[in-house]
């Protein structure tokens, strides 16, 4: 008979740890984390990824026919199926344990070469074995929290009647106008077809025109909001910005709600309720993982999450932010002046030191923001909002959109955008235009903030950064 893992009758370790009862017959499958051999017994901890803690399995030579042979194989990393009976544990680290009646080894892991031994490894080292690092306590906890955040995001919007819309990954536009796009082409780069003027002849390319990986689904989300009122996107976005920092990825996930009949105040209210909902859900759903982050990664994460839930976010204008930054004795690397963009150090000063909580900065100078943001009555600023978090800086960027056709056309002209490329975007203003607003949340920055992980490369399974695209 061939060995076939049976999935249907397998119990998850997390469920057994929470609700398992003595005398219950169970089957678990997973990977050995640790093995302890006593004189007449052995203990192995089996982890199936469902929780931080594994299930303690007791191996008794009297109960297990192949005891000696099995025990030799049970190094860290070995995959096993265990059948047996749950029993109240004598040990103080767990309520319940599994007394094995049969134990089957699927694949062994060599003690000498398996890189994940019991000792603590640096995150830098773990990045070099990214195909194995999800089996560690920290990365396991990160990816469970990440999953809970994703679920909470869908739950938040679905409960409020928002439609999840799928915007294209391959686009022809540059939403943010920052020129940080990756080109998508099927041309042979060693033999590029050229026009008589020696430019690349994109009419011979796959789409007959230049195309890029999207930097944001916002403009397409606006199309959908003009039909469904409230929509959101949740998908990968790509930026070829050469920033080798702990907060930048070349491929990251973004959540972008877009609301028709909504102004900047409504946008900020939604963003605040949205973030609070995610924090609340993570605290309720992942208490063990969050306690782990608090103990092992950053001893402020639990207090920070609680404080976010119990305080309202500070809301200040960009002009006030500049005044605060000019008044402080703090020495910054980058200059502060009205008209200059806020740098990460300025953002962190506001959120971390001055207000000690999330800060929403509104009404930025129009010159430093994208063309689609709604011009304020002062004609100098636009209805933009950035949400700044302690330690991370900007986590959300959003705005009310320019819904007035003539004002939008004028703004596009100033920013040198060709109205022919944006005919469809202008049509939204020609036919049934309404005030509307939205924002984009950087999903990895959110997970970073919640878990206290210092490097963004450690909150996404397969990070893409300058000079790094493994897998
Ligand atoms: O502020 P951004 O550029 O806003 C937009 O793209 C708008 N179109 C969103 C909208 O209004 N619908 O990006 C939004 C967020 C940032 O606040 C940041 O959290 C995250 O995306 N982000 C990045 N995260 C990781 N790596 C990068 N390189 C990022 N660039 C932006
Ligand atoms: Mg931004």
TrEMBL record:
Gene3D superfamilies: Bira Bifunctional Protein, Domain 2, Nucleic acid-binding proteins. The gene is asnS. The keyword Protein biosynthesis applies. PROSITE patterns: AA_TRNA_LIGASE_II (PS50862). Homodimer. Signal peptide: none annotated. InterPro entries: Aa-tRNA-synt_II, aa-tRNA-synth_II, aa-tRNA-synth_II/BPL/LPL, Asn-tRNA-ligase, Asp/Asn-tRNA-synth_IIb, NA-bd_OB-fold, NA-bd_OB_tRNA. This is Asparagine--tRNA ligase.
């Amino acid at each position: 008979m061939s060995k076939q893992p049976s999935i249907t009758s397998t119990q998850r370790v997390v469920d057994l740890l929470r609700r398992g009862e003595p005398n219950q017959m169970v089957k678990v499958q997973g990977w050995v984390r640790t093995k302890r051999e006593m004189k007449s017994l052995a203990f192995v901890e089996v982890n199936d990824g469902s929780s931080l803690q594994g299930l303690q399995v007791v191996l008794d030579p009297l109960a297990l026919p192949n005891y000696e042979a099995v025990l030799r194989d049970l190094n860290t990393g070995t995959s096993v199926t265990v059948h047996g009976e749950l029993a109240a544990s004598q040990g103080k680290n767990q309520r319940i344990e599994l007394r094995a009646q049969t134990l089957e080894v699927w694949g062994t892991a060599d003690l000498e070469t398996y890189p994940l031994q019991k000792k603590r490894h640096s995150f830098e080292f773990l990045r070099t074995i990214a195909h194995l690092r999800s089996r560690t306590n920290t990365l396991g906890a990160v990816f469970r929290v990440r999953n809970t955040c994703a679920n909470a995001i869908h739950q938040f919007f679905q409960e409020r009647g928002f439609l999840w819309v799928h915007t294209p990954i391959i686009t022809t536009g540059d939403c943010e106008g920052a020129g940080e796009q990756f080109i998508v082409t099927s041309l042979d780069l060693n033999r590029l077809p050229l026009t008589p003027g020696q430019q690349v002849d994109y009419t011979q390319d796959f789409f007959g025109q230049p195309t890029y990986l999207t930097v944001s689904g916002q403009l397409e989300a606006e199309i959908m909001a003009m039909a469904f009122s409230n929509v959101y996107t949740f998908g990968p976005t790509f930026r070829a910005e050469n920033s080798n920092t702990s907060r930048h990825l070349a491929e990251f996930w973004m959540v972008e709600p877009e609301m028709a009949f909504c102004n900047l105040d409504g946008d900020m209210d939604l963003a605040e309720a949205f973030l609070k909902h995610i924090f609340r859900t993570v605290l309720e759903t992942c208490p063990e993982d969050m306690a782990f982050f608090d103990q092992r990664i950053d001893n402020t994460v639990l207090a920070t999450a609680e404080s976010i839930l119990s305080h309202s976010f500070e809301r200040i204008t960009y002009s006030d932010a500049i005044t605060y930054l000019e008044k402080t004795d703090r020495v910054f690397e980058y200059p502060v002046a009205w008209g200059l963009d806020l740098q990460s150090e300025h953002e962190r000063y506001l959120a971390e030191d001055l207000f000690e909580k999330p800060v929403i900065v509104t009404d930025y100078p129009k010159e430093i923001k994208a063309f689609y943001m709604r011009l304020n009555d002062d004609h100098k600023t636009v209805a933009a909002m950035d949400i700044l978090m302690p330690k991370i800086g900007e986590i959300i960027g959003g705005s009310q959109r320019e819904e007035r056709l003539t004002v939008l056309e004028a703004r596009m002209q100033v920013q040198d955008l060709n109205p022919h490329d944006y005919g469809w975007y202008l049509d939204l203003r020609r036919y049934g235009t309404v005030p509307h607003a939205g924002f984009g949340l950087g999903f990895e920055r959110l997970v970073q903030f919640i878990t206290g992980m210092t490097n963004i490369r450690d909150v996404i399974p397969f990070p893409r950064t300058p000079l790094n695209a493994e897998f």
